[in-house]
Write a structure and sequence with these properties.
By secondary structure, the protein is of the alpha/beta class. Helix content is 52%, strand content 17%. Strands 13-14-16-17-18-19-20-21 form an eight-stranded mixed barrel, surrounded by four helices. Strands 2-1-5-4-3 form a five-stranded antiparallel β-sheet, with helices on both faces. The longest helix has 44 residues, at 147-190.
Length: 728
């Protein structure tokens, strides 16, 4: 197997090992020379002279410029001859030594061990075989050697060979995995839409990612070594210079943001958003790291919004203000039937999260054009905001609004090519007619639209007065939940989290249940959405946190951990950090035993505020985990900035990890990324032994799922804690 190309780390490693090996060989050879002088018969003591010369030669070899030479694969491959020649030389000297059989073995084993640090298992095995052959060749020259001694020495040499071959094989595998992780990280940086710059203490650019060419048109080499300030717009230079000085003098790890203009290669100016992190204290970086994104299109959009009061700047359709104005005028005239169709795209946020907002805008523009082609010129088509559109029809002229809605659904679900991807998007449409006012008509259409979503999406629904009943039911549910909080009807069940290699129970995830007095035990899907919408999720989440910590303190198991989920409302609550601090103080639990789980979507709503909250929580000593990782827009820049300890791999990637190469590659990438960022990984939804085995082989640290246990009450967890450790 050819030796792989070396990076700087590999060059240093080879150079160091060669010099250490040369010095050890020098020492062994000198000891051999002393053995010749004091033990050999007088007529053979002249051999001390060439042996000493060999020792001096090997000492000289240690001082050669190996750092330059080992960069050539042929030199590294040829060096194995050094180890090969050592063994027959050693055997030759041992042949004439009275105790040569005994001396040969440890020296030969040392040579094989030294080769283990550099060469693959096959080369190490070959050296081992050569060492055994040398030992057997010595035996005829030492006929008095004990058979028991020979057998014992051969056994020792065989064990050493086996161990060194295993070590060499494992080292090669680890090196290959490290190189794969490095290539993966490099590829991610090369394809990132952001430019990452490393600015030294002298304000010169020390490093720029390849995306510099895409964003600004400059090659990374052309800006490396130059002052960043020379690229800045003259009007922005004082502000940029002061910002850099402030960041440079700030505490290590400080993050700051600025908006500035930099010159493109063609001479035009790009409006950029720069996020800087003070990494001058880091011995591996020693620089300020800037993450730069072109926000010129966004700035132009903002200016366009300020100029246009009644047109959606992205699609050119009527905006919400114009639509409401026309709706009120239409309902006030009462000379024709007025119908409103409210169109909401299904799961549109995933496009922004996965492909970026520019791709989302392109998709909205294309879908708006399709809607425009399927309504009459006299109808009002508007984009109310986000991914929501509305159609105002003042005169149906005998048309069936349901047929129109069906035609719009058919057109919207056709595939669209966006950002090099073929995307299919469905919609939910609510249809309402009549009404006392425009506000009432729009509200009825909104209720019908949500009814269509509850029916499974990709559908339309006509408004029915019975839809008000659902509103009443939701209000009733909110009232019952308020009573449940007061009367402590909620309970916490716990799902085991295990160490994947050993299946040892290391912690639990807290999951709330509602012991309803009439409907029995209810799972979260029956009440969490209502709790989130009504705001009751905040006191409910606070209670779950306190109850989980109280139960953890009751179990009294050192190092045993509990994971508690934070909802979006909780995460945005200004009192969150105080609530966590108070709960920890009241329970007396070690903060390191509490893990708070958040989702990617919660972070992306306001990354700066989310970062501040996470750092505040981290200062309390608790651990932080990103739940459902991989289902949202996982920006490496954000992941690097956030004080996250654990990445939880979503069950969507775990289900077929043992059978689907794509899912296996994704999980392997997440595990590699986590290890590179010094994070732990937890796989969710493990249900089969095959999934468990695959995840262990990929290096995943922990796991949870029905294979290890369903969510159960605290007493059942206590029984599990008392059970013996399962067989691995």
């Amino acid at each position: 197997m050819p030796l792989p190309r070396l990076d700087d780390h590999g060059v240093d490693y080879w150079t160091r090992q060669i010099r250490v090996g040369a010095l050890i060989a020098t020492l062994i050879t000198l000891l051999g020379a002393l053995q010749v002088v004091f033990v050999w018969v007088p007529e053979r003591r002249w051999w001390a002279i060439p042996v000493t010369a060999a020792a001096v030669a090997q000492a000289v070899l240690a001082a050669l410029p190996w750092r330059r030479w080992v960069q050539h694969s042929r030199v590294r491959s040829g060096l194995i001859l050094w180890w090969v020649l050592e063994l027959p030389t050693l055997a030759f000297l041992a042949y004439f030594d009275p105790n040569g059989v005994v001396y040969y073995l440890p020296c030969a084993m040392l040579i094989v061990i030294l080769a283990t640090a550099l060469y693959p298992a096959t080369a190490v095995a070959g050296l081992g075989v050569l060492a055994v052959a040398g030992f057997l060749a010595l035996l005829p020259g030492h006929p008095g050697t004990s058979s028991v001694l020979v057998a014992g020495l051969l056994s020792v040499l065989g064990c050493v060979m086996l161990i060194t071959v295993i070590i060499a094989h494992n080292r090669r595998r680890l090196d290959d995995r490290r190189r794969v992780a490095e290539r993966r990280s490099e590829a991610l940086l090369q394809n990132s839409p952001e430019v990452v710059l490393a600015i030294g203490r002298n304000d010169k650019v020390r490093y720029a990612t390849p995306s510099m060419r895409t964003v600004l048109g400059h090659t990374p080499e052309s800006v490396t070594g130059s002052l960043l300030i020379t690229l800045a717009h003259p009007d922005d230079r004082p502000q940029l210079r002061g910002w850099m000085a402030t960041l440079r003098s700030s505490a290590p790890g400080t993050v700051a943001e600025i908006e500035t203009r930099l010159r493109r290669a063609d001479g035009s100016w790009a409006v950029l958003d720069a996020i800087g992190t003070n990494c001058l204290h880091d011995p591996d970086l020693g620089a300020i790291v800037l993450s730069v994104r072109d926000i010129g299109p966004r700035k132009a959009l903002e200016e366009q919004l300020s100029r246009q009061a009644f047109r959606d700047p992205l699609t050119g359709l009527s905006n919400r203000a114009l639509f409401r104005d026309r709706l009120e005028h239409a309902t006030a005239r009462r000379d024709a039937d007025v119908t409103v169709l409210l169109v909401d795209l299904d799961d549109f946020k995933s496009v922004n999260d996965n492909l970026g907002h520019s791709a989302g805008d392109e998709l909205l523009t294309a879908l708006a054009a399709r809607l425009r082609d399927n309504v009459r010129p006299g109808d009002t088509l508007a984009r109310l905001g986000g991914d929501e559109f509305a159609v105002l029809i003042e005169d149906l002229d005998g048309r069936d609004p349901g047929a129109l809605a069906e035609r719009l659904l058919h057109e919207l679900r056709k595939p669209i090519s966006v950002a090099g991807h073929e995307i299919r998007r469905t919609a939910s449409i609510g249809v309402a007619a009549g009404g006392e006012s425009g506000e009432e008509l729009l509200r009825n259409a909104d209720l019908a639209m949500y009814a269509a979503k509850r029916q499974g999406r990709n559908a339309y629904a006509l408004f029915d007065p019975e839809m008000y009943a659902s509103l009443v039911n939701e209000a009733q549910l909110r009232a019952e939940m308020e009573t449940a909080l007061t009367e402590q009807q909620f309970v916490v069940h716990y799902q085991p989290v295990v160490d994947l290699p050993t299946q040892r129970l290391t912690g639990v995830e807290a999951l709330v249940r509602w012991q309803h007095p009439e409907r029995g035990l209810l799972a979260p899907q029956h009440f969490i959405d209502t709790a989130e919408e009504s705001g009751l999720i905040v006191p409910l989440g606070r209670w779950v946190l306190c109850e989980s910590l109280r139960q953890l303190a009751h179990w009294q198991r050192p190092g045993f951990k509990v994971n508690v989920n934070l909802s979006a409302r909780q995460f945005q609550d200004p009192a969150l950090v105080t609530d966590v601090r108070d709960a920890l103080a009241e329970s007396g639990v070690d903060p390191a035993c509490l893990t708070l789980e958040i989702t990617e979507s919660m972070l992306l709503q306001d990354i700066d505020a989310a970062t501040d909250t996470l750092h505040a929580l981290r200062r309390l000593g608790v651990r932080l985990a990103i739940d459902d990782f991989g289902t949202g827009y996982s920006s490496l820049n954000y992941l690097k900035r956030l004080p996250v300890d654990i990445i939880k791999i979503d069950r969507a990637f775990v289900t077929q990890v043992a059978t689907d190469d794509g899912d296996k590659a994704l999980v392997d990438a997440v595990v590699g990324l986590s290890q590179a960022l010094r994070m732990q990984t937890v796989a969710e939804g493990i249900e089969t032994d095959d999934q468990w085995t695959a995840l262990r082989r990929l290096g995943c640290d922990f796991g949870q799922g029905f294979l290890f246990g369903r969510p159960v009450d605290p007493a059942s967890i206590e029984l599990l804690l008392d059970e013996p450790l399962p067989a691995a």
